[in-house]
Amino acid sequence: MKAEESNNILDKLAKIITIIFHPLLMPVYGMAIIFSAPTLLGYLPFTVKKLLLLIMLVNNILLPLSLLPFLIHRNIITSWTISERRERNIPLIITTLLYCATSYIISRFPIPVFLKSFIFAATLLSLMVTVINFWWKISLHAVGSGALIGLVLILSLKMLTPLEWYLISAIIAGGLVLSSRLKLNLHSPVEVWVGLFAGFFVLTLFMTLF
């Protein structure tokens, strides 16, 4: 009985971690890291930070979530978790289009190139996982976790600022996310590891070049 209770607790923790680090939230966490880290970007006016976060909150979190009831009603998806690979196609296409809209809006703002590069990288990642999902179920949570780790590394290198605790925190969070997805049997080890490294390398390569 104790083993069963312990397993139930671990399952609940895994579900909580999965919700906290949902793929839709990761770019907002990325922006929060950029704005809170002790670099020159942290000194941007509060109004600019608030506007950028608001755009991402509306376009890339609230709008996709608001469409889920309609998708369920139309039997395009069967649950809020969208765990089946084929059911992810339409939501991913919608999410990618919304990221493209966000990229277009933010590209017109007179803000540092680093911020634009991050948004463009997030859009590229969204497009990448959408294409991959037509043939293979990659872990979206792992992609987001890898991207956050890559963001902290690139931010530290480009801003010439040591961000050890940010990097350690991002790595620990990534480990928790991967462990949670495996614990819930929602992905295979290959799916989460490929997702982690894909998110990390695509974002770091893009933000290094641009």
Describe this structure in words.
By secondary structure, the chain is an all-alpha fold. It has one domain (2-209). The chain is built from eight helices and no strands. The protein has helices at 2-20, 26-36, 46-73, 89-107, 113-133, 140-158, 164-183, 189-209. Helix 2 packs parallel to helix 6 and helix 6 runs antiparallel to helix 7 (164-183). The longest helix has 28 residues, at 46-73. It starts with a helix and ends with a helix. The mean pLDDT is 93.
What shape does the CA trace take? globular
Main structural class: mainly alpha
pLDDT average, as an integer?
93
Biggest sheet overview: none
Question: Which features would summarize this protein structure in a list?
Answer:
210 residues; mainly alpha; 8 helices
Describe the structure concisely for a colleague.
By secondary structure, the chain is an all-alpha fold. The protein has helices at 2-20, 26-36, 46-73, 89-107, 113-133, 140-158, 164-183, 189-209. The protein has 8 helices and no strands.
Could you give the topology of this structure?
Elements lengths: L1 H19 L5 H11 L9 H28 L15 H19 L5 H21 L6 H19 L5 H20 L5 H21 L1
Helix pairs in contact: 1-7, 2-3, 2-5, 2-6, 3-4, 4-5, 5-6, 5-8, 6-7, 6-8, 7-8
